[in-house]
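Researcher: I've been going back and forth with a colleague about how Carbamoyltransferase Kae1-like domain-containing protein might be arranged in three dimensions. Neither of us has a model we trust, so I'd like an independent prediction. The organism is marine sediment metagenome, in case that matters for your notes. Sequence below.
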Amino acid sequence: AQMINEMCHLIADGTPMVSGVALSGGVFQNRLLLRKTVSLLESSGFQVFTHRQVPCNDGGISLGQAVIANFAV
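Model: Here is an independent structure prediction for Carbamoyltransferase Kae1-like domain-containing protein. You can compare it with whatever you and your colleague have in mind.
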């Protein structure tokens, strides 16, 4: 969690308009990692976005593909 926090700070320091972080991917199925990462990022002033209704792993990819395909048609 600390490494993710540090990397977000490195990226944000080089990009003035960055104030939010989206946490996605199968690694964030680990609730302990997710909870600690969100806590660190929020205490550092980042707005944190996480999955609520769609799985954060590959299960959510097909939904995203369907949404994009819908707009392309």
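Researcher: What would you highlight for our discussion?
Model: I'd start with this: Strands lie at 20-22, 47-49. After that, consider the following. Residues 2-72 form a domain with the Nucleotidyltransferase; domain 5 fold (CATH 3.30.420.560).
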